[in-house]
């Protein structure tokens, strides 16, 4: 599996290989040097393909310039979650992470420069304790 580096530019053939191997997550945006953007989507045949960033599922016309150009990849943002403690923790019910001392603690859900309250699935899995105690609440809810 290719590790995607958003700061790197990729050849068109590399983008196609990532599509063929299902390595580009859905809704990943690929943009050429002229700023033309395309989104990775599933096609009617359940294959991955690129559609124009305008959202219309039109057939894409690729030119020789596109093939020889360098492309950038912008991955979709991962979902973020609050970790909410059971209701017996009345005032301080959300897991917080102190950026200064690297400690976890319970407080409100307000994020600041000093503490983090929103976590991705990968960050939750990497926590050094069992997180099943907490309810995952999607930040977008």
Polypeptide structure, described:
The structure is a single chain. By secondary structure, this protein is of the alpha+beta class. It has 2 domains: 9-74, no CATH class; 80-138, no CATH class. The protein is 13% helix and 32% strand. The protein has 3 helices and 11 strands. Strands 1-5-2-3-4 form a 5-stranded antiparallel sheet. Strands 10-6-11 form a 3-stranded antiparallel sheet. The radius of gyration is 20 Å and the shape is elongated. The mean pLDDT is 84.
Task: List descriptors.
3-stranded antiparallel beta sheet, alpha+beta, 13% helix, 5-stranded antiparallel beta sheet, 2 domains, 141 residues, single chain
Number of strands: 11
Which radius of gyration do the C-alpha atoms yield?
20 Å
Give the N-terminus to C-terminus distance in angstroms: 32 Å
Into which percentage range does the β-strand content fall?
Answer: 25-35%
Q: Helix amount, in percent?
A: 10-25%
**Based on the structure, what is the oligomeric state of the protein chains?**
single chain
Q: Report the biggest beta sheet as strand number plus sense, adding barrel if it closes.
A: 5 strands, antiparallel
Shape annotation: elongated
The computed structural class is alpha+beta
Mean pLDDT across all amino acids:
84
């Amino acid at each position: 599996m290719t590790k995607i580096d958003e700061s790197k530019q990729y050849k068109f053939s590399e983008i196609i290989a990532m599509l063929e191997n299902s390595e580009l997550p859905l809704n990943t945006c690929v943009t050429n040097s002229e700023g033309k953007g395309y989104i990775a989507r599933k096609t009617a045949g359940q294959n991955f393909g690129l559609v124009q960033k305008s959202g219309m599922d039109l057939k894409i016309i690729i030119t020789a310039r596109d093939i020889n150009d360098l492309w950038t990849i912008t991955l979709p943002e991962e979902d973020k979650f609050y970790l909410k403690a059971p209701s017996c923790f009345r005032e301080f019910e959300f897991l917080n992470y102190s950026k200064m001392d690297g400690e976890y603690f319970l407080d409100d859900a307000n994020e600041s420069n000093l503490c983090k309250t929103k976590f991705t699935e990968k960050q939750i899995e990497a926590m050094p304790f069992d997180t099943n105690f907490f309810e995952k609440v999607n930040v977008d809810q």
